[in-house]
Each structure stands twice: as C-alpha cells, then as structure tokens.
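Sample intake sheet
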Amino acid sequence: MSDIAIVTGAASGIGYRVAERLLACDPSRRCVVVDREAGWSHELAERYGSERVLETALDVTDHMAVRACVDDIAERLGVPTQLVNCAGIQYNCAALDLSIDDWNRVLSTNLTGTFSFCQAVGRHMVAAGTGAIVNLASISMWFGFPRRLPYIASKCAVGGLTQTLAVEWADAGVRVNAVAPGVIETPLVQAGFDHGDIDREYVSGHHALGRLGQPTEVAAAVEFLLSDDASFITGEILNVDGGFRLKKI
C-alpha cells in the first residue's frame, strides 16, 4: 500500500522541503500539501506529477474545516498514513505589550492547528491500526527566549501533545514524534534578519556547528521519523539544532 502523507504549512520553508523530500524518497507516495494560500504547488506537481501532489487551501485554526478536509481525503484517496504538522507563526513582542489577539493567533495556529490535524488524522490511523505523525516543535521549548512568549508556550505544548498521543495511540500501531529545530534559514527567519529582530552572526554562534540549519536538514529528520527505519521510536522530541541546546546549557 502506498503512503498518503499530509503536510501542513507546506507552501514555504520547512513544510515545503518536507513535502519535496517525501515525494522524492518514495515514487509511490502521494502528498496532500496544505497551506492558507492557494495556487503555489505547481513546481512540485511538475516535478513529481499532478496525481501525486494534491494542494489544499485551508486555515488550520478552523477545527471543523480540518476535520472535514481529512475525512474527504480519506474518502477520496484512502486512509492517511503519514502526517507532518509544519504550520506555524510567531511574533516578536515584549510580554507586557502582547495583545490577547496575537497570543490567541499564535496558539490557535501552532498548537490548536496541530491538535486538530492530529485528532482528525488520528481517528483514521487508529481505526486502521497504522500511521506515523511528526509535529514541529522548536529548540526554544527548552529555554526562556524573551519576546517570543506565545511561540515558546505553543511549542512546549506541542511537545506535551506529542508525547501524550504517542502513549495513547501506541497500542493502535500509531507512532507520534516531533522535531525541535534550531534556527533554520526559512522565510520567517529571513524576515527577522531583514527587520533587525535577529542578528545572523549572533544566532549562528549559538550553534555548536557555528551556522544556521537548512530546511532540507530538518526534512531529512522528519522523513526518517516517518519511515520504517524509525519503527521503534515514538514519543521522541528530536533536536535538529546543530548543537544549540548542548552549547546553550
């Protein structure tokens, strides 16, 4: 049976590279690429075939829309066997100045969106007795990073969600893991450089390897955790951080 993978936040950054790698590594795998924007997946479809790349425009904060989307995928394509939750946002703002709307927006996207897809896909995986999920955490979950409060709170919660679901669904043959990247050269991080919110030299020096990570390096770790090579790994939060945590502590 060929895998059916769902990747959220797939229009750019880590999500895009994850979808790309999953398509490249298994010529029989079909990939549903989910993002708020529509009409961006042409390059993937040209390279890997329009029958293997199925684009869905969806706001991950809409719980009922997520469930309807996943049920439709299962009905049309078959049970999703792999899920990667990459959709995420963040704000640079002092905690005392943070609006409740911005707090809710980050938590709704990063945490509730992850939960919604895990629950919707998990229903089908548990019933089928198989599946693998990888959520996107962050190295920032291990430390206190000023001006990133809702982002860090959401990523800490994603870690707890990942480990709890791993235990709940283990008997059903469903594995749930997460990756916690260091600072990765994504459009989100580049915007931070451009706005002066992040200093490239400073953050590069916090990684033991002395550089930022690439989205393709995170995608490789995700693909491994989804694969049969990781069949005895569940509930793990894998740091893909160039030694950031080790150097920080």
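Comment: The first helix runs from residue 13 to 25. The radius of gyration is 17 Å.
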